[in-house]
Amino acid sequence: MCHKNILKLIGCCLDTQIPIFIFESAVYGTLDEHNHNPRELHFEPLLWTHRLRIAMEVANSLAYLHVRFSRPILFSGIKPSGILLDENYVAKLFDFSQSKSIPEGESRVNVKYLKGALGYIAPEYMEALVHNEKCDVYNFGGLLLLLLTGKRVHDLARGTKDESVLSGYVKKHSENNRLFEIVGPIIVGDDQGLCPEKEQQLQDFKELALR
């Protein structure tokens, strides 16, 4: 694979008991760490411009996996802890341990078990244990909501098994014209503030995430 938003494998050694893989450097932590513990880890906060670019880069990498190969590759398990950032905040997908190719002539794959965070697994998989490109898109929508709110899914899901808890949280506030109450405080308080242009971007971002 050769894509700027997929962590590049430089080399590997399969002669050891545990295989060793060498990847390009992306030492600026995961998206999860930047979104929730930036000060503790001495990272700069993710501004709205960073979040928009990260969303675009992850979308581009998924499109590459879905259409670049004769057999579409399903990433299967997009979540903030599976996205690394480099020193320029460029997003890098990594950990393809759950990825699968769709067999020739098929439109989906059967998966007995898919490890993922609550709220990131698509209903299609939960109901029928099948996975396709739409499931990756659903995962991506959950990632957009996280970028918008700064909320961890499992923080909202404590005491419940509701897989759509984050989208429900956003819909509830949006329907009551309270969307900006749940936008991440870093977004509201960054250099741009809540100017009309940014307000429209946030609304559009929310609509895209909930499709």
Automatic annotation (TrEMBL):
Keywords: ATP-binding, Nucleotide-binding. One of its GO terms (molecular function) is ATP binding. One of its GO terms (biological process) is cell surface receptor signaling pathway. It comes from the Eukaryota. GO terms for cellular component: plasma membrane. Pfam families: Pkinase. Transmembrane segments: none annotated. PROSITE patterns: PROTEIN_KINASE_DOM. Residues 1-211 form the Protein kinase domain. PANTHER family: NON-FUNCTIONAL PSEUDOKINASE ZED1-LIKE, WALL-ASSOCIATED RECEPTOR KINASE-LIKE 21. This is Protein kinase domain-containing protein. It comes from Acer negundo (Box elder).
